[in-house]
Design goal:
The protein has 71 residues and is mainly β. The protein has strands at 43-52, 55-65.
């Protein structure tokens, strides 16, 4: 945004969110330990998040179908 005359409010960190927990959710004692699990994936979504005074707002930008042998 510097080229547009605006300083960045903070450094952007791209990331992949696999799960979200509610605040103060109880976590299993094994949290952080190695675990293995499987689940079907039908699509991958690119989601934009924006924080405002009411909390986070999420907008799906695009989705891509995933061909799975499980389907």
């Amino acid at each position: 945004t510097a080229q547009l005359g605006q300083k960045a409010r903070r450094r952007f960190r791209g990331h992949l969110t696999l799960a979200r927990l509610k605040p103060h959710a109880e976590l299993p004692r094994a949290m952080g330990a190695y675990a293995s699990a499987g689940f079907p994936v039908r699509e991958v979504a690119l989601v934009q998040s924006r924080l405002d005074s009411d909390g986070a707002r999420y907008t799906t930008i695009h989705t891509w179908p995933v061909d799975s042998p499980d389907r």
